[in-house]
């Protein structure tokens, strides 16, 4: 049988153990408690530097204010955010129906919009805009798998751009959605240049029209060509029906 150590040794060991616990507890308490006193800095880095904070006094200026107001009549260099049409897609409080000043609908603009759309948008919405992009297909397959979504994640079916409600979106609203996002869709205001977002919006309207156009949307001078092409395309199918496929 192993003899117990003396009582004084047990008492001393208990006190030492408690003493070792106290520093971590005190440190954790100090770190979690706000303190008005300046923290102890071993390396100052840039924590302390001579400067004037906003709303403080500065005797350098006649009005004694450190915070300066903008010089009257000046604007920021480069693009400004005062043009709500260009930067918000809004004109007189309503969604813009046209491109902003300095931009015109052209083949070059639509080609640029298609390129940007294929890079940023098609992965979810699909190249034709029906919400069948590669990323969306993969996510929907994972959501419907027998194992269920990983780590409780969720995925919302990408919206078809040919949905009747989406087709009603004005040009400015499409631009704003591309900029700021909507519902579960994130915005691309920081990834895509402002004019490119307008180009994408213009291309989406063109894409919608291509899938929902009628003969009345075709200029009268070329309607005859479309009818001839439709007749020529239907002829092989008619021949196959009559004589069978050889």
Features:
single chain; 246 residues; Cytochrome Bc1 Complex, Chain D, domain 2; two-stranded antiparallel sheet
In short:
The protein is mainly alpha-helical.
Distance from N terminus to C terminus (CA atoms, Å) equals 103 Å
Report the top-level CATH class of the domain at 84-213.
Mainly Alpha
Mean pLDDT, all residues:
83
Shape estimate: flat
Q: Biggest β-sheet: count, sense, barrel? A: 2 strands, antiparallel
CATH topology of the domain at 84-213: Cytochrome Bc1 Complex, Chain D, domain 2
The strand line-up of the biggest sheet is 1-2
Beta content comes to under 5%
Could you tell me the number of beta strands?
4
User: How many DSSP H or I helices?
Assistant: 9
> Which parts are unreliable, with pLDDT below 50 for 5 consecutive residues or more?
none
Q: What structural class results from the helix and strand content?
A: mainly alpha
Tell me the radius of gyration: 34 Å
Helical amount among residues, as a percent range?
40-55%
- Looking at CATH, the homologous superfamily of the domain at 84-213 is Cytochrome c-like domain
């Amino acid at each position: 049988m192993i003899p117990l150590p003396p009582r004084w040794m047990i008492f001393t060991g208990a006190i030492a153990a408690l003493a070792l616990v106290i520093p971590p507890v005190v440190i954790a308490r100090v770190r979690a408690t706000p303190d008005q006193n300046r923290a102890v800095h071993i390396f100052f880095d840039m924590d302390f530097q001579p400067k004037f904070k906003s709303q403080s006094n500065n005797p350098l200026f006649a009005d004694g204010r450190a915070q300066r107001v903008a010089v009257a009549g000046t604007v920021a260099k480069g693009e400004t955010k005062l043009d709500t049409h260009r930067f918000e897609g809004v004109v007189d409080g309503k969604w813009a129906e046209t491109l902003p000043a300095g931009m015109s609908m052209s083949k070059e603009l639509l080609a640029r919009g298609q390129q940007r759309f294929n890079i940023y948008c098609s992965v979810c919405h699909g190249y034709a805009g029906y919400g069948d992009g590669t990323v969306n297909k993969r996510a929907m397959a994972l959501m419907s798998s027998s194992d269920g979504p990983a780590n409780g994640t969720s995925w919302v079916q990408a919206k078809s751009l040919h949905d009747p409600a989406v087709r009603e979106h004005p040009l400015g609203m499409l631009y704003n959605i591309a900029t700021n996002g909507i519902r579960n869709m994130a915005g691309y205001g920081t990834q895509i240049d402002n004019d490119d977002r307008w180009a994408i919006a213009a291309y989406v309207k063109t894409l919608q029209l291509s899938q929902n156009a009628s003969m009345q949307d075709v200029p009268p001078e070329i309607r005859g060509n479309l009818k001839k092409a439709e007749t020529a395309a239907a002829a092989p199918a008619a021949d196959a029906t009559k004589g069978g496929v050889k």
